[in-house]
Design goal:
The chain has 453 residues and is mainly α. It is 84% helix and 0% strand. The longest helix has 32 residues.
Length: 453
């Protein structure tokens, strides 16, 4: 156990300069633009409505997301091991960021009928975006001491949210002034440029502090990655309440991912929303996302994290049921505001509960496993949504319904599948004994010995 003097020296060594912190924050400012434009407000609807233009659009969008997330799931443990042993987090972050930026810019050339080109470029952009996050997160302990991680991470999250709104405020006037597919396509290289410029401070101002270290004898990055993952899984299995909580998270988190990935398609198909309306919708969701994080944080402080998380899940299920029944754009905007509040509660409180359930000295291990597990499940929900919505729409067309009516009904069945994931996840969460989970974590930290779950 390091002495207090050694711990203070370690914290001083990790304290970054103000310029380094700003560079780290600005990267999040830029990569949030990719999420806002490509995943949420612009490209998803363009892909469905313009590039594909049929009921297959929803299925193919879900398939593309599923493929990208599956690839990231497989390679994430290896990327994490490379990050730990290579001392090259920054270089690898820039490589994957470059892949995402280049492929995002190339989406400009995707036009009606270019389905496979669009899917390939999007999948590569998404893999680059998600993989770069592994290294971005890995830089946090290098720029913040143990007493600063929460503050620095929180600032990065907030600045990233602002970045996602700013890019939409840049694109919205252009789409209003020059309506049509050309400006929608042009928004993609604009986003890539925005992402690239926001990455420049990290290139020039952030110093990588971690040194490379040799792999254990006989190991490769791949073998060591999966051996470490298996070891962590075997160790975590003894924490029974944490295991139940992790299962609940894997299920309800898929519902959240489905809602985010298909929001633009739902708006375009069910309510005929154009790009400018979808952009305003995503801005609204982001604003109320901040409100939700604050409100549910207060609720958790006054009750417990589990009760507050359950409340946010109940609210999100209510939102999904309303979305299933909604008939007007005004309703959809109100739903978006409420969804922003609920999703913020779900996402922030999920991390809070994990921090409460992780024993002292093993928090990094638990968070790492949590991240890998989350990615492992996240390809399932979007694919399920795409299959249900498309199968339902095609069935109605065969029964004689118009294509438009069939697509709308297909989306409504897809929306119900989101609610199913949220409901099942919430029911599993109800079985988690929060008090016992915290006691087990504390007793493990106090005794530094294995504890039966």
């Amino acid at each position: 156990m390091p002495s207090r003097r050694a711990q203070r020296a370690e914290r001083r060594a990790r304290r970054a300069t103000h310029r380094e912190r700003v560079a780290w924050y600005l990267y999040d400012f830029g990569n949030s633009a990719y999420a806002s434009v490509v995943l949420l407000a612009v490209f998803a609807a363009y892909f469905k409505e313009q590039v594909v233009g049929t009921t297959q659009g929803t299925y193919l969008w879900g398939l593309a997301i599923g493929i990208a997330m599956l690839v990231v799931t497989v390679i994430s443990p290896v990327l994490g091991t490379i990050a730990d042993y290579s001392g090259a987090k920054k270089r690898l972050l820039l490589f994957f960021t470059g892949v995402s930026i280049i492929c995002t810019a190339l989406l400009f050339f995707v036009q009606k009928g270019d389905i496979w080109q669009a899917m390939l470029l999007f999948i590569l952009a998404e893999i680059g975006y998600r993989s770069a996050q592994v290294y971005y997160d890995g830089l946090l302990p290098e720029i913040a001491g143990l007493d600063e991680v929460a503050e620095v991470s929180g600032k990065g999250w907030a600045i990233g949210s602002v970045g996602g709104v700013v890019i939409l405020l840049i694109i919205l006037p252009l789409i209003l002034l020059f309506p049509g597919p050309l400006m929608v396509r042009l928004s993609l290289p604009i986003t890539a440029l925005y992402f690239g410029l926001s990455t420049l401070p990290l290139i020039f101002n952030l110093k990588e502090r971690a040194a490379s270290r040799p792999l254990p004898p006989g190991e490769t990055y791949i073998s060591l990655a999966y051996r470490r993952l298996g070891s962590t899984f075997r160790g975590i299995r003894s924490f029974r309440e944490f295991g139940k909580y992790l299962l609940a998270f894997l299920i309800y988190n898929d519902g959240v991912i489905m809602a985010l990935d298909f929001a633009a398609i739902i708006g375009a198909v069910l309510f005929g929303m154009g790009q400018q309306e979808l952009i305003l919708f995503v801005i609204l969701v982001n604003v109320f996302n901040a409100v939700g994080a604050w409100a549910f944080g207060l609720l958790a402080a006054r009750t417990t994290s589990k009760r507050a998380l359950l409340a946010s899940l109940v609210m999100m299920i209510f939102v999904i049921l309303w979305m299933f029944l909604a008939q007007t754009i005004v309703e959809f905007f109100v739903i978006g505001a409420l969804a922003g509040v609920a999703m913020a509660g779900i996402q922030s409180l999920s991390r809070t509960m994990l921090s409460e359930f992780a024993p002292e000295g093993r928090s990094a291990e638990f968070f790492g496993f949590f991240a890998v597990a989350g990615r492992t499940s996240s390809f399932i929900g979007p694919y399920v949504y795409g299959v249900i919505a498309t199968f339902s729409a095609n069935h109605m067309v065969r029964m004689g319904a118009s294509v438009l009516d069939a697509e709308k009904q297909g989306q409504r069945w897809g929306i119900l599948s989101i609610g199913a994931f949220l409901l099942v996840g919430m029911l599993v969460l109800l079985t988690v004994n929060e008090r016992r989970a915290i006691q087990v974590a504390q007793s493990f930290g106090d005794a530094s010995a294995p504890v039966r779950g």
